[in-house]
């Protein structure tokens, strides 16, 4: 199985499901966004506003390569760099937590912590559609998350692995 990578759009539950899955599999859990915040002593939104998205993507790619073991909750944009996709495919199993746009909108509403969600509805939807194609084409498994609890999702992934 190697490393288990959870991918999916913002608000798909990667962080909470990752934590639960780590418990179920008895493996360490790494949340990449939290890891970056701890390492840089800055919030994700501060990194975006002060240093730009490209710097954040560099941090993200570096962190991905440092993780050698366990369950990894990636950030929604991990698939924006081809090298990251290739890395994950080579090192482990990639699980796509698939959530509909309306469910994401319900969950995030007007979340202000995610710089790429602070956009117009049409820009959000455009990003969602572009990303979903990427998630779907690179995942080893797709798990639907609408109307499911995080424990149920973690158990479903456990059965797939
Ligand atoms: C991003 C998603 C965020 C975070 C950053 C960029 C994206 O993570 O990495 O704001 O590009 O979709 P979550 O998917 O955990 O919200």
How would you explain this protein's 3D organization?
Its EC number is 2.7.1.71. One of its GO terms (cellular component) is cytosol. Its cofactor is Mg(2+). It holds the Pfam family SKI. With 161 residues, this protein is of the alpha/beta class. The protein has a single domain, classed as P-loop containing nucleotide triphosphate hydrolases (Rossmann fold, 3-Layer(aba) Sandwich), CATH 3.40.50.300. It is built from 8 helices and 5 strands. It has a 5-stranded parallel β-sheet, with helices on both faces. The longest helix has 18 residues.
Give the quaternary arrangement of the chains.
Answer: single chain
Helix percent band: 55-70%
Characterize the overall form.
Answer: globular
Structural classification: alpha/beta
Bound small molecules, deduplicated: shikimate-3-phosphate
Distance from first to last alpha carbon: 7 Å
CATH class label: Alpha Beta
Number of domains: 1
Task: Strand order, main sheet: write it out.
Answer: 2-3-1-4-5
What is the CA-atom radius of gyration, in angstroms? 15 Å
Write the element-wise H/E pattern from the N-terminal end onward.
EHEHHHEHEHHEH
Annotation, overall tally of beta strands: 5
Largest sheet at a glance? Answer: 5 strands, parallel
**Portion in beta strands:** 5-15%
Q: Low-confidence segments, ≥5 residues, pLDDT <50?
A: none
Mean pLDDT, rounded to whole units? 96
> What is the correct CATH architecture?
3-Layer(aba) Sandwich
Tally the helices: 8
- Kindly report the CATH topology: Rossmann fold
Q: Let me know the CATH homologous superfamily.
A: P-loop containing nucleotide triphosphate hydrolases
Organism: Oceanobacillus limi
Subunit structure: Monomer.
Binding site for substrate: 33, 57, 76, 131
Catalytic activity: shikimate + ATP = 3-phosphoshikimate + ADP + H(+)
């Amino acid at each position: 199985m190697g490393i288990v990578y959870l991918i999916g759009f913002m608000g798909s539950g990667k962080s909470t499901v990752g934590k639960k899955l780590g418990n179920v599999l008895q493996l360490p859990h790494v949340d990449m966004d939290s890891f970056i915040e701890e390492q840089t002593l800055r919030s994700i939104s501060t990194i975006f506003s002060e240093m730009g998205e490209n710097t954040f993507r560099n941090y993200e790619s570096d962190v991905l390569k440092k993780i050698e073991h366990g369950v990894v909750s990636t950030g929604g944009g991990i698939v924006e760099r081809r090298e990251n996709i290739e890395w994950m495919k080579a090192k482990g199993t990639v699980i796509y937590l698939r959530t509909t746009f309306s469910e994401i909108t319900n969950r995030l509403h007007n979340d202000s912590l995610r710089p790429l969600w602070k956009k117009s509805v049409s820009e959000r939807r455009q990003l969602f559609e572009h990303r979903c194609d990427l998630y779907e084409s690179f995942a080893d498994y797709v798990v639907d998350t609408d109307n499911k609890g995080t424990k149920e999702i973690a158990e479903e992934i456990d059965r797939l692995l």
